[in-house]
Amino acid sequence: MCARFPERCIAGGAPSLIKVREWYGQAVLECWLDIQLTDLVMFAGVRKSEAADLTGRLAQVIADNYGSLKVSELMLFFQHFKSGRYGRFYGQFDPMVVTCALNAFMEYRSEVAGRVSREAERLRRESAARERRRLEEAGELLTHAEWVELRWLFNMGYERERKVQCPAGAA
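The structure assignment produced for this chain is given below.
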């Protein structure tokens, strides 16, 4: 599901690694990361016994350096890695390949987040324009001519305040 809906993974409401650590503790966070890394190792055809020590340490590195990533974003990252986007292991597990891949994923994530943000802003502007047209059609907005005719009403309060606050003869 993550690979099919990357925008949802990045813009959605899944908890970040920082929140997982806060809610469940460091051990649970590292255990979840270790499970994901073990699945990656097994997918790559590397024997778990060769990578067991490294996955635990890599889980700590990811938890400490990529805490702002959401759980869904990491799941998307692992899907991308498995699809060959970020390199591969050559016979043995190399944690540096994973961390370099995470850095590349961060760039991808930034691009997608920017695209999602621009689309949300475009939709917000369209909605505001529709609402403005609706108010205009309903006659609930002042035209420019009406504003020019009535602006003295709005300035009256300002002039009255200014006269009260200014010393005599200064206005």
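Interim note for the steering committee: The CA atoms of residues 7 and 112 lie 7 Å apart. Residues 95-137 form the longest helix (43 residues).
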